[in-house]
Amino acid sequence: MEPQQVDTLTGVLDKKMTRQLKQYLDICARCAICKDACHQYVATGDLTYLPARRAELIRQIYKKYFTKTGEFVPALYEARDPDESLLDELYESTYACTGCRRCMYYCPFSIDTAWILSVAKAILIAADRGNEMLGQLADAALMKSDNFDMFRDIILDGFKDIEGKVKEMTGDPSAEIPVDKEGADVLYVALAGAHSILPAAAIFHEAGTNWTLSMFESANYGYFFGDAEKARRIADRFMDEAKRLGVKEVVITECGHAYRVAQFFHEAWSGEKHPFKVRHILEVIDEYIRDGRITVRHGAITEPVTYHDPCQVGRNGGIFEQPRDIVRAIASDFRDMTPNREEQWCCGGGGGLVAIAEMEDFRLKSGAKKLEQVKATGARIIASPCENCRLQLEGLNDQLDLGLTVKPVMDLVVDAMEIRR
Ligand code: SF4
Ligand code: SF4
Predict the structure, then answer these.
(1) Mind listing the pLDDT tens digit for each residue in 219-244?
(2) Which residue's CA lies nearest to atom 7 of ligand 1?
(3) How many CA atoms lie within 13 Å of 392's alpha carbon, on the beta-carbon side?
(4) What is the pLDDT of residue 419?
(5) Residue 420 pLDDT more than 80?
(6) How many angstroms is it from 103 CA to the middle of ligand 1?
(7) 49-65: per-residue pLDDT in tens?
(8) Which amino acid residue places its CA nearest to atom 4 of ligand 1?
(9) Does 107 contact ligand 2 (Cβ within 6 A)?
């Protein structure tokens, strides 16, 4: 590799070097406790996917360029140049990571391997080795907002079609999907497609919420790709819309990474404090049920139901009880998985992996632990508030012909909701 290229890549690491990252790079005790926490390592036994080994590749560059010992005696201190072979290894271990942070939960030093790998992604992108599909999807989202006038009418026509279905579902011809509504209390940010708009619209209507639907989807492939600037610009689309409309809160649909980006990353990326709250839709629905703004029939579902904590909603988002309370309010036979909450196994579908065709076999194989957990409950329905998790769970279900039903929590709510008129 040319010295200039090496300078570029080490420059990326230098820019990302905070005290926290330096500590993560200095402190690993190589105890390998994290190996038993990672669903990918457990399913494959391949050292490429051992969390500490993935981070070690960045640590090797760090030792060579940021420590005296590594600079002068690289062989002794396992210091290494970011050459092509290191970048090959880095690509494979980094873009496979779902960012579930289960390894961090079990690490005695709480080393955040997923954070280290976000730096690895920035280095790979600088080396023009970022994942092509995730990069294309991020660029497509930005192209849509940069040329929004071309798409506006198509989007609005789509919303009108969904509005017709909301009227049918609620039996109320006045039910609507408000768009661009100044003075709305809530801006709801859905995913592309009717499936994440329709149930929320019915619930907001029934609860009498003053809401409006975002023109932009919440999914953020800039985040999965590892380009913080693109990820910020993708999230800016609905954050700017929320500011323009003067809403009191932004409510993110059942999408794990979108919730984490909106709730935890966007303010830091943009350097601005949001003038509104950000909540996950299940926090809102739980409040509606508790406050009696909507009523669900207990026992509306009698088949055994289990709940999968998406890593970005549960372990990394802190939302554990509200979804369980909602499911328990509806299902007469709720069966939690073991372990659960912070210790829940990652299903294997996060990190953008469901969008990368060449990773399908690996992804499904990595769901082995999740499958074990689901089977042990004996549940026939799996509820989970993240689209990537649901796609993975459906893939596992189809592959083994298990006959399970995988559902968003919102769909259970709509099926059990009493319509008051
Ligand atoms: S558990 Fe933590 S300290 Fe131990 S090897 Fe893994 S990252 Fe290093
Ligand atoms: S964040 Fe999850 S997928 Fe990534 S290394 Fe840690 S346990 Fe494995």
Answers:
(1) 999 999 999 999 999 999 999 999 99
(2) 52
(3) 33
(4) 87
(5) no
(6) 8
(7) 999 999 999 999 999 99
(8) 31
(9) no
- Does the CB atom of residue 350 touch ligand 2 within 6 A? no
User: Is it the case that residue 12 has pLDDT exceeding 70?
Assistant: yes
pLDDT at 321: 98
> Among the listed ranges 70-79, 198-207, 325-334, which one has the minimum average pLDDT value?
70-79
Cβ(118) to ligand 2 under 6 A? no
Report CA(30)–ligand 1 centroid distance (Å).
5
Residue nearest to atom 3 of ligand 2 (CA): 97
Cα–ligand 2 centroid distance for 60 (angstroms) = 19
- Backbone torsions φ then ψ of 213, nearest 5 degrees: -95, 135
pLDDT of residue 77: 73
pLDDT category, 421, cuts 50, 70, 90?
low
All domains of the chain in start order, with CATH: 3-130 (1.10.1060), 134-290 (3.40.50), 305-416 (3.40.50)
Binning pLDDT at 50, 70 and 90, where does residue 89 land?
Answer: very high
- Helices 148-170, 198-207: inter-axial angle, 10-degree rounding: 60
Q: From residue 26, how far is each of 58, 60, 94, 253 by CA, in Å?
A: 11, 11, 20, 38
- Residue 52 Cβ < 6 Å to ligand 1: yes
Residue-wise pLDDT for 266-314, tens only, equals 999 999 999 999 999 999 999 999 999 999 999 999 999 999 999 999 9
Ligand 1 contacts CB of residue 38 (under 6 A): no
Among the atoms of ligand 2, which is closest to the Cα of residue 41? 8
Q: How far apart are CA 245 and CA 243, in angstroms?
A: 6
305-307/249-252 β-pairing? unpaired
Q: Which helix (H) or strand (E) holds 188?
A: strand 186-189
**140 Cα–ligand 1 center, Å:** 37
pLDDT of residue 70: 81
Among the listed residues 318, 323, 346, 349, the one whose alpha carbon sits nearest the alpha carbon of residue 336: 323
Alpha carbon of 104 to ligand 2 centroid (Å): 8
The pick from 49, 92, 102 for probing ligand 2's pocket by mutation, whose C-beta has the most ligand atoms within 8 angstroms, reads 102
Beta carbons within 8 Å of 304's beta carbon, 6+ residues apart:
331, 333, 334, 335, 377, 378, 379, 380, 381
> What's the whole-number mean pLDDT along residues 191-205?
96
Place of tokens 């071309």: 150
